[in-house]
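HOLO CASE FILE
Compound: magnesium ion
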Amino acid sequence: MSTIERLPLSIDHIPEEKRAVYDAEPILSARNLVITFGRVVGLDGVNLDLYRGEVLAVIGDNGAGKSTLIKCITGAYTPDSGDVFLDGAPVSFKRPQDAREAGIETVYQQLAVIPALDIASNLYLAREERRPGPLGSVLRMLDKKGMKQRAGEAVEKLGIQTIQNMGQAVETLSGGQRQAVAVARAAAFGSKVVVLDEPTAALGVKESGMVLDMVKQLRDSGLAIILISHNMPHVWEAADRIHIQRLGGCAGVITPQSHDMGEGVAIMTGARTLTS
Ligand SMILES: Nc1ncnc2c1ncn2[C@@H]1O[C@H](COP(=O)(O)OP(=O)(O)OP(=O)(O)O)[C@@H](O)[C@H]1O
Ligand SMILES: [Mg+2]
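Model generated. Tokens follow.
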């Protein structure tokens, strides 16, 4: 069905039980993404294929282009050139809201929560639900009670027990709790793809573990996840494949089975090159 040629994929190191994931066409593809900022090369022609039911980790040093890559894919940046395909069809998102409407939820590294709003309102930002019947359709009244209840369920599902009151303003939450709200939002609404840029950077050990569990649950339910992280043990625990970003380019794609953490970091820093 697709006119895009798939990127070469070595399934040698993909466990037997996961191979079916790679029989299907990629849900999301990026080809030759290029973006420059003045003289800084953000991306120098990056390719990516993401499959349903996989966690694709993206690792790389500071400034390697990880955030830029996902921003170009999700409409936060417009690449100078290159193409993005969702379900085999070309897309060009002008803003993150467009990607969201197409089923791609992103938690950006710089958090997209509005501090003065409460948790429930943040979860439903830009997708507020109206009251049933004429109160909603004619008077445009928001279903605040329903949103609060469903927000509570989303947060509970993620296992964030430290958040007790959904009516609490996000500005009164701790940094980690704010991050958890953003992740809960993505998990609750991502229908095809969930992109998480450093979702556990501000989280404590227990909360990080919960986010990782949630990532695996979303993956097992058939969603495709892009997980950017500097935490190598997390990456090696949760990822099916690992895209290594280096100096604006992709230095290779490995799996936790094909390379150990030390080897992955060596490729990331340029101490070793991937010969494939
Ligand atoms: N809006 C921008 N204007 C100018 N330069 C930018 C902009 N966005 C990104 N860059 C540059 O592009 C390069 C890649 O940045 P990016 O944020 O993608 O790195 P990263 O891999 O996410 O790093 P980190 O691990 O620190 O989050 C950097 O040199 C950065 O300064
Ligand atoms: Mg970044």
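CASE NOTES: The longest strand covers residues 40-50. Residues 93 and 254 are 28 Å apart (CA to CA).
CLOSED: yes
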